[in-house]
Amino acid sequence: MKSCLKLVLLAIASGNTACSHVAAKPQDCPASDTMLITEHLTAITKTNIFRNYQNITALNQTADYILGVFKQYADTAYFQPYSVEGRIYKNVVCRFGDAHRPRIIMGAHYDVCGNQEGADDNASGVVGLLELARMLHGQALENPVELVAYSLEEPPFFRTEYMGSYIHVNTLKKANTAVLGMVALEMIGFFSDAKKSQTYPVKAMKVVYGCTGDYILLAKRSGYGKFVKQFSKKFEQAATIKTKSIATPGSILPIDFSDHLNYWNMGYDALMVTNTAFYRNKNYHQSGDTMETLDIPKMAQVIEATYQAITN
Known about the structure:
Mean pLDDT: 91
Largest sheet: 8 strands, mixed
Low-confidence stretches: 1-27
């Protein structure tokens, strides 16, 4: 136990960074729109039935909405359908930039676990994609950016080949598609300024990260590559929101609880942008996970930092 704790402390001490100020946005950097964020969250979460794997109608309604927004801004937007146990599920994909150059993948899952709205988990990440689509429209990109809204990240399909992210990355792998790296947006909407609002899987982590859930975390696997290093640097330099990082083996801390897991397993450089999920948001997988609990201005700040990281 002591050796494991030592490894954790070494990992977080070497990987932790924090931005304590908010810098002025570059004049040519588009701002994330809090009114649009609210509009998208309402459309995705305030539905008559819940968008879990059993409710194909709700999933299709959400997929249609995402595709409709993608088509407003991207020249290339489409469904990636696949079959599971006789049912058709859909990833929703759009792309900006030259498809022949190595691409950046930005992903977030739109399904929920059980009968709940899933505002933070993970409508927040999906809305991040929708805002990024708007902000990327008309921008000159050195490398193409592919936005993917995944189905079936949640149980009972988590860690199986039926995850939408597995379907997507497996298709890229089989086609030998050049990928710079992948970023998973996983729960980016819940923040708290209250003391003791942040918990950890290892108590000693509070020494480095503190006990206030007012930051966004960049979760990386130790030994990460050039893309993750550069993305993290540019995200932190954006200085729109307090940012901390961790780089550790997934076997020590639960940093693989999202779609980036499948990109890691296929050999791609990847990381997760997250508010730490159930270590902060006690509404996780509960009926209390509603949009009314989210901090929309901070969501916008996360999206702006993400935009600056992938376009620089």
